[in-house]
Amino acid sequence: MPNLEHPAYPAADLLHLESLVPCRESQVSMLLSIFGERQQFSFPSIFIYGHTSSGKTYVMQTLLTTLQLPHVFVNCVEYFTSRLLLEEILIQLQSSSSDTEQTCPVHCDTLNDFVRLFKQAVASRELQDQTLYIVLDRAEQLREMEANILPAFLRLQELTDTNVTVVLLSEIVWELFRPNAGCFEPFTMYFPDYSIGHLQKILSQNHPPEYSADFYSAYINILLGVFYMVCRDLKELRHLAALNFAKYCEPVVRGEANERDTRKLWKNIEPHLKKAMQTVYLREISSSQWELLQHDGGEPGQLKGLSAHTHVELPYYSKFLLIAAYLASYNPVRTDKRFFLKHHGKIRKTNFMKKHEKTSNHLLGPKPFPLDRLLAILYSIVDNRVAPTANIFSQITSLVTLQLLSMVGQNDQLDGPRYKCTVSLDFIRAIAR
């Protein structure tokens, strides 16, 4: 029995829509109830929010396209100013008009111009007898525009006196949108994250035709068992599934195992999935490089990536500055004499020091340090004598710009600037080699 039912739309279209939006039937059913029939006035504005890759954009695009509802779809990141956004809405309305052969240039400087031109565009398309939907994706960008843009979109139906519904898609909650002066409250709707069962069902639909559905479903189950705790992004998981499936099939292709021999298949794919864990979200290497690496049986560190620590190139003294900053961040001030002076004399280890040195400083995180301490450690670890020239200070600024160091507090402190080292121990070991 189909989950989607609505008297205003053909049953075949609803059945096709249900097959396109798996695990989102309840949200689509709710939207259809809000939309109503084509000629009915819908809610003036709808606010849909949820985490990234929860299906908000895909569901809205699929719903409006499958049911052939008149709509305008605009990404607010691409059209980042109010003028670009308003003009793009008018251009899409004009280009989809059946009686307009060529799109004319649109100039819209103010909100009043938009309301006037919008009413003309709706009249030219003869949309007075059905609802027009304006979908604004990444709607959080509206907060960076003029103060009247968001309230105007929320009550655009009232301003234009037309049958229009504005749908806002965002990853943040409505409370972070609401202006201080108040505005028309939209109908809010939440898209929850996909559960592991939903991800299993969605990813299993993409099985290759040369293999059975059960075989690919078992592979997806193994993939989610490894990656679900660290990655729940559907797009990323789909990319990982396509990238590693060839390696999973190798024993079957060579004739060493059949499709039901899950133990052999798991032992073959396990080391490669562990390597793939290092590239989740980072994209340190391309897909073609990763496939070549799997074929050769190498390590990810052998290929140069965007953030591979072993391939970071820094000037000579910047490397020593970074090492000195790491030592200053993770070593207590009282140990400087012991570590960096040759004739420091006898240092008593009191009970206080023994008690507090049991906890690793790496677990506590980096501590801020002043500039003079950084330079003092630098002078002690560099073999030759270093003069405190402008070149040294400019390299410190460059390390802050590269986010290898971070400045703590204000720049105009009386006791000078303070810094923190933000890189890991593995990074410092690679630099120190």
From TrEMBL:
One matching Pfam family is: AAA_16
Query: What keywords is this UniProt entry annotated with?
Result: ATP-binding, DNA replication, Nucleotide-binding, Nucleus
Q: Which Gene3D superfamilies match?
A: P-loop containing nucleotide triphosphate hydrolases (3.40.50.300)
Molecular function terms, GO-annotated:
ATP binding; DNA replication origin binding
Mind listing the GO biological process terms from this record?
DNA replication initiation
On whether ATP-binding is a keyword of this UniProt record, the answer is yes
A Gene Ontology cellular component where this protein is annotated is:
nuclear origin of replication recognition complex
Q: Which residues form the Origin recognition complex subunit 5 C-terminal domain?
A: 314-433
* Residue stretches making up the ORC5 lid domain: 216-283
Task: Spell out the family assignment given in the record's similarity comment.
Answer: Belongs to the ORC5 family.
Q: What does this protein do?
A: Component of the origin recognition complex (ORC) that binds origins of replication. DNA-binding is ATP-dependent. The specific DNA sequences that define origins of replication have not been identified yet. ORC is required to assemble the pre-replication complex necessary to initiate DNA replication.
Protein name per Swiss-Prot or TrEMBL: Origin recognition complex subunit 5
Which organism encodes this protein? Machaerirhynchus nigripectus
The encoding gene is Orc5
